[in-house]
Amino acid sequence: MINGRKSLIQRVLTIPNILLIAIGIVLIFVPQFLGVSRMAMVTRIMIFSVFAMSYDILRGYIGLVHLGYGLFIGGGAYFVGVMFLQFGVSYLNLLLAVVGVTIYCVFWALVVGRISAKSGFLATAMVTMAFGEIMRNVAERWRTVTGGQDGMRFPVPEFLANRANMYYVSFAFLLIMAFILYKFTTSPTGRVWQAVRENEQRAIFLGYDTNRARTIALLVAAISGGFAGIMFGLFNHFVNTDQFGMQMTYNAMLYSILGGSGTLFGSILGSALVISFQTFLLDLRHFHSIFDRWLLFFGALYIVVVMFMPHGIAGFYLSWKEKYAAKKKLRMEAAAKEEVSS
Fold it and tell me: Is the pLDDT of residue 72 over 90?
């Protein structure tokens, strides 16, 4: 029992878990020490972390590239905005928006799943990009409801209008979604996703229904992305057609790749790094106008990370951890052989 208890403690008190616990404790007290602008930045990081994690389910775990991923964050933000503007601000309407977004995301996930089952990698990527553009055009043309290119500003419940309350709701949202997505990726379904990513033909040979696995991944990612869209709309009190644009897809892709594609929690690292770095550079605009072009600096950072950490930050850590464990095992074996020989 003592040995079992020790091994359990050793499994729980690993460096990543200790860091996660420490970061969680710090985040709980962030609103008390940061101003409104910095608190808003951290809230944005948490919302986009969920969006990036949902995209990582597709690209990192099952190997599917969806170039119209703004479909989901844009759909979530528009649903909650339209519900509040057309039917009034209430938690019932927020719940109805959640239901509506879920149905909307399920529809698009099933459509994309059907197409990806019959089309190749490139065709799926191009078709999904077209779907995103279709929805962006619908939002632009339907001005009476969506406000067109100007977008629409809408009220939110009084509780969520408070930045500190919105921060804690976003924090809870991140924790819940991270736990759910982690459980999916470590389940037998998640193992099948990774098998499809590595070698789909071998997965088919082993008897797995790869089309079904791909559709499940699309459903999980789409619904998670749609919920992130609802949170993004509640946070901004505003939505426009840019949410359906390619830039939102690029953001999700960039965050997940930089943090570590296929690691899930690397998306949190990537989101935090990019958004905080962007905010830091934009704060330097009063020193020189070059900082308005923050993408130049970020491009240089991205090149450095790709050169020295091709698998992202989390991927680099996992690779180092494996090498360290292998060296430790070799040292233990060598020590055991010396002890036996002596």
Answer: yes
Give the residue carrying structure tokens 């420490």: 22
CA distance 69 to 66: 6
Task: Please report the DSSP string for 145-185 in residue order.
Answer: HH-GGG-EE----HHHHSHHHHHHHHHHHHHHHHHHHHHHH
Scan for tokens 């608190």, then name that residue.
39
Q: Is position 84 within any domain? A: yes
pTM (2 d.p.): 0.87
Domain-located, residue 304: no
Q: Residue 312 falls within a domain, yes or no? A: no
pLDDT at 303: 82
Q: Over the chain, what is the mean pLDDT?
A: 85
Asked if residues 192 and 213 have their Cβ atoms less than 8 Å apart, the reply is yes
Query: What DSSP element (H or E) covers 308?
Result: helix 294-308
Q: Could you list the residue range(s) of the whole structural domain that residue 266 is in? A: 35-293
Q: What is the 3-state secondary structure of 198-260?
A: HCHHHHHHCCCCHHHHHHHHHHHHHHHHHHHHHHHHHHHCEECHHHHCHHHHHHHHHHHHHHH
Please give the average per-residue pLDDT across 84-89, as a whole number.
91
- Output the domain CATH number for residue 52: 1.10.3470
Tell me which residue of 112, 121, 115, 99 sits closest to 68, measured CA to CA.
Answer: 112
Euclidean distance between CA atoms 38 and 275, whole angstroms: 11
Tell me how many domains the chain contains: 1
55 part of a folded domain: yes
Q: What is the pLDDT of residue 324?
A: 77
Does 252 have pLDDT greater than 80? yes
For 209-223, write each residue's pLDDT tens digit: 888 999 999 999 999
